[in-house]
């Protein structure tokens, strides 16, 4: 009887040992942790997935050397204000309390990236002559960032449209009330700017306006 009990104990021990070796072989390095979990009831916490990295101004990838990172967002109707971000610095936003109906414009030095001036021009009830005084004396190489809010075109006259076209705009010629417009131009540029988006809403749809998101990389040139 005692011999049979001892034999069963030996067989059971061998069976447990074989089971452990088999589990360790199948699970590799995780075998020990698996056995601990099996006998202790502990569960390993799942490894959290890494969050996607964000770069300047919310871009999904970093800019190459001598490039400026930027993000322009037009206003949505007359409810949500526009936003201009340059090199991870917010230049224009509702949170900064420096947005206004019409055209929100930031001037940037195209050589070193310094912000020169930020102004808002009311294109519904304002005086377009103020916009003309602002655009006429721009120096060669000055970058012009524009984000519209509610009404970018009612007060635009032929001279104002021509000045924007000289900065590289193709949409300024037809811009009207309730259009959404984001644009980056440069004084002295020879070709049309690739950094422009517009949503023409039409005069019969004054109650509605789309919100444009404009993300891209702007080549930082020392001259144009």
TrEMBL record:
<dbReference type="Pfam" id="PF15711">
    <property type="entry name" value="ILEI"/>
</dbReference>
<keyword id="KW-0964">Secreted</keyword>
<keyword id="KW-0732">Signal</keyword>
<dbReference type="InterPro" id="IPR039220">
    <property type="entry name" value="FAM3"/>
</dbReference>
<feature type="domain" description="ILEI/PANDER">
    <location>
        <begin position="101"/>
        <end position="188"/>
    </location>
</feature>
<comment type="similarity">
    <text>Belongs to the FAM3 family.</text>
</comment>
<keyword id="KW-0430">Lectin</keyword>
<dbReference type="InterPro" id="IPR039477">
    <property type="entry name" value="ILEI/PANDER_dom"/>
</dbReference>
<keyword id="KW-1015">Disulfide bond</keyword>
<dbReference type="GO" id="GO:0030246">
    <property type="term" value="F:carbohydrate binding"/>
</dbReference>
<dbReference type="InterPro" id="IPR039475">
    <property type="entry name" value="ILEI_FAM3C"/>
</dbReference>
<protein>
    <submittedName>
        <fullName>Family with sequence similarity 3 member A</fullName>
    </submittedName>
</protein>
<dbReference type="GO" id="GO:0005576">
    <property type="term" value="C:extracellular region"/>
</dbReference>
């Amino acid at each position: 009887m005692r011999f049979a009990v001892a034999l069963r104990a030996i067989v059971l021990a061998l069976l447990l040992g074989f089971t452990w070796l088999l589990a360790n072989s199948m699970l590799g390095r995780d075998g020990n942790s698996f056995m601990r979990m099996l006998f202790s009831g502990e569960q390993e916490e799942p490894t959290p997935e890494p969050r996607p990295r964000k770069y300047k101004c919310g871009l999904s990838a970093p800019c190459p050397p001598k490039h400026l990172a930027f993000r322009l967002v037009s206003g949505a109707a007359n409810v949500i204000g526009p936003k201009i971000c340059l090199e991870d610095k917010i230049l224009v936003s509702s949170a900064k309390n420096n947005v206004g109906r019409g055209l929100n414009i930031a001037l940037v030095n195209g050589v070193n990236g310094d912000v020169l001036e930020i102004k808002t021009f009311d294109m519904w009830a304002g005086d377009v002559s103020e916009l003309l005084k602002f655009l006429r004396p721009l120096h060669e190489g000055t970058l012009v960032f524009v984000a519209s809010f509610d009404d970018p075109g009612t007060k635009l006259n032929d001279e104002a449209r021509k000045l924007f076209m000289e900065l590289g705009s193709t949409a300024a010629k037809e811009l009207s009330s309730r259009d959404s417009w984001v644009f980056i131009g440069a004084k002295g540029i020879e070709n049309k700017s690739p950094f422009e988006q517009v949503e023409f809403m039409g005069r019969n749809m004054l109650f509605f306006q789309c919100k444009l998101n404009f993300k891209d990389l702007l080549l930082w040139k020392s001259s144009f």
